[in-house]
């Protein structure tokens, strides 16, 4: 149910309504792979996908790591637009490389304008770890014009982790992550020239090591460039020993690598969450548009084995939470058992896409994509589950999405992995409703309709501010999808009208779904009857 805490908390109700739109937002694109899903088993091994990126010609690239004889190696896969492996890339569509006597993990990828792929990750030796950065040609070979042999190893301290990579407009490469010195864990940010050498005009010889909050543990996981400034996001907390709750952090740097002091609290945007550090090492991804800074994360209870919830945070460009987004800038999405959010993307209309996994019970998970309106509410017109599209890649077993992005035609591409005995790469492509030439549920039809919650004394208050004369029909359902009948069916003139709907006084207190049909288009509203 929806209830107010220090933030806005939304519970997911699994109510399914039929739709006449074959290509509606949040439904799988049946022209991609096997009815919208692609599963790849590389060389009969187990492989785990952490990142997805798109090329300008429509090809899709995913990156992660493959388990080989108890070791981990880097792997990339490139697909054609229809979801088939691109055999022009490394002969079979797969690029696989390892460092001798080490475990190697690819964590993020980005594609240059010329189609070359840049990746970052971590190579673990017996007693240390280093950041790795590589560049791959369009044919799937290492690019020897990058750091002489296509691979760069960055040694900051004893333990260094490469978590994210992005490109500046001038082609320079930003790599973010964290390192573990003698005390604490610190943010790491490096800038490379296009040939893989360090940009000595940035930070200290191309490198920045920054303690986000004095002696804190700073697990930084993503980096983006917006209007010339650099934003690094992650999760920080105050120590391993007592699992002190921390929160999500965003640090802003200028183009020379200086912290921008008038952003947030001396360069730091921060919100505290009731959580522990482990669940954030793979999360806290960031996206930015003109409306603000968005971070997809996960809240977990103080107890590491407690419930976890999808968390979406919105900071203003000044570094402080957006008070008009959710409650104090934070929205929680509670699902059936537990759920995690990892990927994030922003549509051109300001809607926010997140992706991750949700437990269907305590032994299996399903992948999901959720869409939120710019104010933090779930977009009820997306997917089958009131704003959430669930993709069960491996029924009865574990599957998850780890990253998400948007194609030029606005279709949504999510990647992750699924357990079929061996763990396999998984990709899904979904309609966003913005595709050119496909049917779309237009949100502007409903923008002038305000449904007031909660419903007190069975009196539902509604306000219509319509741009044209239209017919409106309301149907009521319980949380199990059972049709409770028509609430009203009326015609309205252009302009504003306030309506009071008298619900059946025998209706028990609880949560219901009211489906409005306006000129043949539908939208569902959650009602809390008190």
Protein topology:
Blueprint: E1 3-4, E2 8-11, E3 37-40, E4 46-54, E5 60-68, E6 71-79, E7 94-97, E8 103-111, E9 117-124, E10 129-136, E11 151-154, E12 159-167, E13 173-180, E14 186-192, E15 207-210, E16 217-226, E17 229-237, E18 247-253, E19 268-272, E20 285-289, E21 292-300, E22 308-315, E23 330-334, E24 339-346, E25 352-359, E26 365-372, E27 388-391, E28 399-406, E29 412-420, E30 422-430, E31 449-451, E32 459-466, E33 470-478, E34 483-492, E35 495-502, E36 510-518, E37 521-529
Parallel strand pairs: 2-23
Antiparallel strand pairs: 1-2, 3-30, 4-5, 5-6, 6-7, 8-9, 9-10, 10-11, 12-13, 13-14, 14-15, 16-17, 17-18, 18-19, 20-21, 21-22, 22-23, 24-25, 25-26, 26-27, 28-29, 29-30, 31-32, 32-35, 33-34, 33-36, 36-37
What does this entry look like structurally?
There is one protein chain. This protein has 530 residues and is mainly β. The chain has a domain of 87 residues: Sandwich (Immunoglobulin-like). It contains no helices and 37 strands. It has a 6-stranded mixed β-sheet with strand order 1-2-23-22-21-20, with no helix packed on it. A hairpin with a 5-residue loop joins strand 12 and strand 13.
Biggest sheet statistics: 6 strands, mixed
Strand order of the largest sheet: 1-2-23-22-21-20
Radius of gyration: 24 Å
Average pLDDT figure: 86
The low-pLDDT segments are 1-8, 13-22, 438-443
> Span between N and C termini?
12 Å
CATH architecture of the domain at 443-529: Sandwich
The fraction of residues assigned to DSSP E strands is over 45%
Shape: globular
The number of helical elements comes to 0
CATH class label of the domain at 443-529: Mainly Beta
Q: What percent of residues adopt helix (DSSP H or I)?
A: under 10%
Structural class: mainly beta
Number of strands: 37
CATH topology (fold) name of the domain at 443-529:
Immunoglobulin-like
